[in-house]
Amino acid sequence: MRQPDAFTQIVEFTPAMRARITDAIEALILLLDEIDGDADLEADPDESNGDEGDYTLGIPGW
Predict the structure, then answer these.
(1) Per-residue pLDDT tens listing for the chain (62 residues)
(2) According to the UniProt record, where is the region Disordered (predicted)?
(3) 3 state SS of 4
(4) Distance separating alpha carbons of residues 10 and 2, to the nearest angstrom
């Protein structure tokens, strides 16, 4: 089990520190979007996914 710290450190949370944290978080999210792609991006309706000719999709019993 971890031993409790012998002292408590109080750090002042300034508006400038908050702005730096916000900027860092936004930069990390942009990096993840570049790596993984944007999860919230909806598919372009003009793009084909290859199932346009398959009329059995969603029809029970086919």
Answers:
(1) 667 778 888 889 999 999 999 999 999 999 998 998 766 777 766 666 665 555 666 666 65
(2) 39-62
(3) coil
(4) 20
